[in-house]
Amino acid sequence: MDVQSLLAESKARFAHNSAKDYLREKYSNKVYIAEQGGLWKADAQTIAVLSTFDADKIILIDTQNNPVEVDREQLLNKLKSLYTEVMTEYYKEWKELENKR
Amino acid sequence: MTRGVLLFAFNSPDYDYVKMAEFTAKRAKHFLKLPSTVVTDTFSLKNLNEELFDKVIIVDSDDTNNFQGRVWLNKGRYQAYDLSPYDETLLLDVDYIINSSTLLKVFELMDDFICHESITYLMNEYDKKEYFNPKLSISSLWATVIGFKKTKRVKQIFELLRMVQENYNHYGNLYKFSTDMYRNDYGLTIGWKIANGHFNVKSDILPWNLIHIGPKTYVYKNSSNDFNTEYTIIFDKWFKNKIKKEYITIKDMDFHIINKDIVVDLIK
Q1: Does A13 touch chain B if contact means CB atoms closer than 8 Å?
Q2: Across the interface, do A3 and B232 touch by the CB < 8 Å criterion?
Q3: How far is CA A53 from CA B134, B238, B268, in A?
Q4: Contacts of B248 in chain A (CB under 8 A)
Q5: How many helices (H) does chain B have, and how many strands (E)?
Q6: Quick check: A7 pLDDT over 80?
Q7: Is residue A42 a contact partner of residue A82, using CB atoms and an 8 Å limit?
Q8: A44 lies in which domain range?
Q9: How many Cβ atoms from other residues are within 10 Å of residue A93's Cβ?
Q10: Are B161 and B184 in contact (CB under 8 A)?
Q11: Closest-CA residue in chain B for A40?
């Protein structure tokens, strides 16, 4: 039995909230990166902290709770690039999902 | 430095695990560009397509794990450390469906050992942990996806897994979990805890959830393409004593299927 006839027969409803949760799960693993001896999450908080400082080298606590001395600008650029890439994909799928309403 | 996938597949009277291993090996090659080694027994070997594997290793299977009238041939996973031909190994359950390159991150993130602790039951429960006993706060690791390198500490973890398997009733009594069925998840958790002096080593835990297709949830592939990555997930939601079916479509997301009958349908 193919999926379309199965859905028609079961009268299943599209679960919008579950689809939102699925998207969040799907993109949660894409924002991690190993860089400069630490494991980082490319999220708004880490990018904001890196942007606030102006020193070349700073010490940050990575996602494994280890203090790591990093080249601030280099890490900032990596995280911004990954964040943009992942969020662009996430947003694209999110818009497709919204259109199913 | 070599990298590869290690699979254990012993056919039982109920399920063709060798066929599942072949399916996983094909997808590991396609999505991860990694070779696979299968560990199997002489009984299962006759159904195996050896060309799909980098290496085939024959061991004796252990049929002493019986639960609800079925034999579960899941013992002996502790041999993974000694049997793996790779410097960096991805040890996978054969009911884990690879649909993306996500697992390559395991190699990037691990020091010498890494696995999942938190899980999500798609369309049902998100971001949760499973506890040995609901009254105790000891959460279980998951042996479904394990990344490891050959180091002294990792060797100890697998040797301890063997010790727990061989003394499962004792550890069940100690940690207050049911010993009706042997679970590698529990054995691995205890072995890992002992090897680390009962400290939780955060870097050993993958920072995202293991996705399960759990109870009352069904998976249908959206295309018959060999490397299909799009699925419809249907969940039976109970509402006012009636089942209300709900569905979502997912794509490019790996998942682990609890119900083996669903795996059989998917790999047809």
Answers
A1: yes
A2: yes
A3: 45, 52, 56
A4: 14-15, 18-19, 22
A5: 8, 16
A6: no
A7: yes
A8: 3-100
A9: 16
A10: yes
A11: B109
Q: Is residue B182 left, alpha or beta, with left meaning phi > 0 and alpha meaning psi from -120 to 50? A: beta
Which pLDDT score is estimated for A9?
67
Q: Looking at the 3D structure of chain A, how many domains does it have? A: 1
Mean pLDDT of A45-63: 96
| Phi, psi angles (nearest 5°) of residue A67 | -75, 130
Best of A7, A11, A22, A86 to disrupt the B interface (most B CBs within 10 Å) is A22
A residues 68-87 lying closer than 8 A (beta carbon) to B: none
Q: How far is CA B2 from the centre of its chain?
A: 22
Give ∠ CA A45-A48-A52 in degrees, rounded to 5. Answer: 140
In the structure, what pLDDT confidence band is assigned to residue A1 with cuts at 50, 70 and 90? Answer: low
Tokens of B84: 């793996």
**Rounded Cα–Cα distance for residues A40 and A34 (Å):** 6
Provide CB contacts within 8 A for A18, sequence distance 6+: B122, B123, B235, B246, B248
Tokens standing for residue B26: 């094909």
pTM higher than 0.90: yes
SS3 category, B232: strand
Say if the Cβ atoms of A32 and B105 lie within 8 Å. yes
Q: How far apart are CA B129 and CA B255, in angstroms?
A: 16
Rounded Cα distance between B2 and B160, Å, is 25
**How does DSSP classify residue B32?**
I
Q: What is the ipTM of this complex?
A: 0.86
- Amino acid letter, A73: E
Per DSSP, what are the bridge partners of residue B249?
Answer: B232
Nearest chain B residue to A18, by CA = B123
